[in-house]
């Protein structure tokens, strides 16, 4: 059924918490017990998919609308920015918030099942503008508070959106954040090398579309082998239907190229310090996209930011399996409740 979780204050001067498994162990001094995560299937409200035109761009949304919302949570994905990957997470978060919040996961432009934009490529900057345009178009006149949740590069996007719409955003949470390049990451170096080459990007994208053209059982087998056995059946299907498209893969790599160019710069520490009471980050133990050295830097540059480390064994791609989705959803819900943005039932 999963393990109990504890939040342990590492020290009073470092304002971050370490979430660890304590199966068979007692809570010691300084620990705060949390509710056991549900790792088995449960009946829940189903998220619906729709296409929304945002500044003339077809945008895939995955959402659950609350009947009486006091809050709207906008989930910004990583790269690939496919909203369907977050289905379990969106549904679990809706339940953990007691149906008091509407939840929307917004896909990146042209990270979609259909090539709505006819082969056009979109940069990191254009994806940021897209999220700002969505909020101004769809949520501008709502009376509900808005919470931004950004995953991986979505955390960088979320911070930039927060900077532009400070009066609209009540809270920002970055999950396994990718905020700056990690020079020690072989994976990042390899992706950057491919993304910078138009020829290699075309080759990888053609290969991806070739894999999709195979018999479905073979395609799923290849995807599962490369992505790992921890991925859920649903996540594997999303990868087969959305990611293994030429236009999607080209956009994934083009966006990655622009990410790596931009993230050579330092984050805007002045803004982070100014809003530190409204910002939280969740890091993983062994995550090259958001290594713990970056957490340490945030704790020094903006000591008031809420920083946590997840050590339950979930990965950077937490949203691609149910245990990770459920765990992170409960983490987010607890943060929101502590901010008194919804009633704590």
TrEMBL record:
Instruction: Name the SUPFAM superfamilies for this protein.
Output: alpha/beta-Hydrolases
Alphabetically ordered keywords of this record:
Hydrolase, Lipid droplet
Going by the entry's taxonomy, the superkingdom of the source organism is recorded as Eukaryota
What are the subcellular locations of this protein? Lipid droplet
Q: Name one GO molecular function term.
A: lipase activity
Locate the transmembrane regions by residue number: none
Query: What does UniProt give as GO cellular component?
Result: lipid droplet
Main location as per UniProt: other
GO terms in the biological process aspect are: lipid storage
- Family indicated by similarity: Belongs to the AB hydrolase superfamily. LDAH family.
- Per its record, how is this protein called by name? AB hydrolase-1 domain-containing protein
Query: What organism is recorded for this protein?
Result: Panicum hallii var. hallii
């Amino acid at each position: 059924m999963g393990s109990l979780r504890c939040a342990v204050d590492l020290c009073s001067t470092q304002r971050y918490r370490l979430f660890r498994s304590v199966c068979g162990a007692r809570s010691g001094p300084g620990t705060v017990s949390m509710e056991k995560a549900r790792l088995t299937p449960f009946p829940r409200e189903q998220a619906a998919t729709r296409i929304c035109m945002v500044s003339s761009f077809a945008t895939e949304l995955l959402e659950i609308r609350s009947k009486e919302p006091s809050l709207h949570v906008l989930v910004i994905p990583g790269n690939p920015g496919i909203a369907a990957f977050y289905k379990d997470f969106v549904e679990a978060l809706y339940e953990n918030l007691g149906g008091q919040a509407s939840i929307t996961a917004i896909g990146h432009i042209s990270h979609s099942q259909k090539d709505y934009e006819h082969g056009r490529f979109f940069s990191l900057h254009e994806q940021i503008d897209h999220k700002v345009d969505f909020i101004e178009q769809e949520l501008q006149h709502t009376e509900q508070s808005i919470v931004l949740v950004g995953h991986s590069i979505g955390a960088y996007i979320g911070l930039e959106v927060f900077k532009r719409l400070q009066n609209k955003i009540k809270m920002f949470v970055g999950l396994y954040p990718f905020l700056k390049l990690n020079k020690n990451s072989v994976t990042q170096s390899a992706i950057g090398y491919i993304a910078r080459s138009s020829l290699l990007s075309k080759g990888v994208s053609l290969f991806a579309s070739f894999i999709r053209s195979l018999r479905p059982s073979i395609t799923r087998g290849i995807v599962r082998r490369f992505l790992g056995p921890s991925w859920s059946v649903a996540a594997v299907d999303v990868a087969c239907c959305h990611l293994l498209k030429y236009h999607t893969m080209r956009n994934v790599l083009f966006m990655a190229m622009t990410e790596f160019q931009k993230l050579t710069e330092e984050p805007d520490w002045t803004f982070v310090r100014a809003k530190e009471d409204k910002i939280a980050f969740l890091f993983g133990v062994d995550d090259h996209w958001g290594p713990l050295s970056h957490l340490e830097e945030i704790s020094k540059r903006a000591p008031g930011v809420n920083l946590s480390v997840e050590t339950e064994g979930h990965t950077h791609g937490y949203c691609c399996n149910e245990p990770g989705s459920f765990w992170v959803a409960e983490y987010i819900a607890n943060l929101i409740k502590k901010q008194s943005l919804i009633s704590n039932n």
